[in-house]
Amino acid sequence: MTRSKHQRLGGLCVVAECVLVGCTGTVPPPPAVSAAPETVPEPVPVPPPDLHQAHPLIEHARALVDAFNGDRCEALEERLDDRMRKAIPGPKLAAACKQVSADTGRVTSWRILKLEPYEGRFELTGEKENIILKLNRREDDERLSGLLMRPPPPPDPPVVAATLEVLPIATPEAGRWLVGHGGPHVRGNHHVGNDQQRRAVDLIIIDDTGKSHRGDGSNNADYFAYGQPVVAAAAGTVRTVVRGVPDNAPGVMNGYVVPGNVVVIEHAAEVFAVYAHLAPGSIEVLAGDEVKAGQLLGKVGNSGRSTEPHLHFHVQSNARLSAGWGIDPHFPAIERWQDGAWTPVTDYTFDHRHVIRPVTPSSP
Question: Are residue 245 and residue 339 in the same domain, yes or no?
Fold first, then answer.
């Protein structure tokens, strides 16, 4: 992980680095905990789509580039289908084209962002500005049925790392905590595509055979994680509490109250931790309470958009679940199961299939 200078946010160390997603599905089966850690290969680069392939939308995009660069905007009207010509008469289209050309400058290169039979998105690099070009056509007509030109969206802000104090979990009496979904790669973490949860984690407990439950797992009480203490990862102020959401039966999700019973704590300015899917009746704090690191918040449940008892935990920059950006949580010291033994790890951050525990049992 590439880092820049440490910044200080309300006593929490932050490091700059180059609506709650449902926990939809059973966590991938882990290896036996005594096995060597899995090495995840880097993704294989996918070659960009070929601009020279025969495709009507590529031809339309090429004509638009030529129009921008050659002041031939009047010629674009013939590329529109009948409904588009009524919606955007030729003079109006030509004026819009000329305005975009003036704002963008000469197009020096362009590339395909998305290409399907009836929809294409292209990024045009101009001397002054870039532009995103979206084109649509109908199944029975190669002419354009849709044309949208807009600036590219701003890039996502870089992921920052907030150093908390303790893991949000206590040492279980039996079994170990498994990072079922977590880390920076979409293959190991289905939260990555969500702005607020791009470094979220789902934590379950497994026994020494890698199972997360006793028997057939048809009851929540069968799961080793169910009812385990959830603790504050650092000192802070409780900002949001949702309670009273019933647990699901394993395998059934609540799509209406997605986080289920949840506690949101402000640990520092623009550092908010979300503790989700807690058991009904287990939450021990109220909004406005000041909490200490390791203080009991509630117990692991199966409420909300969850298929089995686990703790969903993530850190984001805004108190609202649907706003802000995800932050990478770091912990000063934990223990990780590696090569058949517990190994101390400093400056730890979650990753897929890690088996972990607090350095010392938390005191709920």
Answer: yes
**Among candidates 121, 167, 128, which has minimal Cα distance to 146?**
121
Single pTM value for the model: 0.71
Measured between alpha carbons, how far is 260 from 68 in angstroms, rounded to an integer?
52
Distance CA 274, CA 121 (A): 35
Q: Are 49 and 61 in contact (CB under 8 A)?
A: no
Out of 150, 170, 193, pick the residue that ends a domain.
150
- Regarding whether 136 and 256 lie in a shared domain, the answer is no
Rounded (10°) angle between helices 56-70 and 90-104: 70
DSSP string, 116-175: -SSEEEEEEEESS-EEEEEEEEETTEEEEEEEEEEPPPPPPPPEEEEE-SS-SBPPPSSS
Q: What are phi and psi of 229, to 5 degrees?
A: -65, 140
Say whether both 207 and 146 belong to one domain.
no
Residue 290 has pLDDT above 90, yes or no: yes
**Cα Rg of the chain, angstroms:** 26
- Cα separation, 248 vs 245, whole angstroms: 9
Q: How far is it, in rounded angstroms, from Cα 347 to Cα 85?
A: 60
Q: How do residues 239-259 score in pLDDT, each as one tens digit?
A: 999 999 999 999 999 989 999
Average pLDDT over residues 335-350: 95
Q: Are residues 131 and 208 in the same domain?
A: no
Domain that holds residue 111: 56-150
Asked if the model's pLDDT at residue 96 lies above 60, the reply is: yes
Mean pLDDT of 24-34: 43
Please check whether residues 193 and 221 belong to one and the same domain. Answer: yes
Cβ–Cβ < 8 Å for 269, 9:
yes
Query: Tokens in use for 100?
Result: 């975009």
Q: What is the DSSP letter of 23?
A: B
User: What mean pLDDT do residues 123-143 have?
Assistant: 94
Residues 108 and 187 in one domain: no
Residue 227 or residue 359, greater confidence: 227
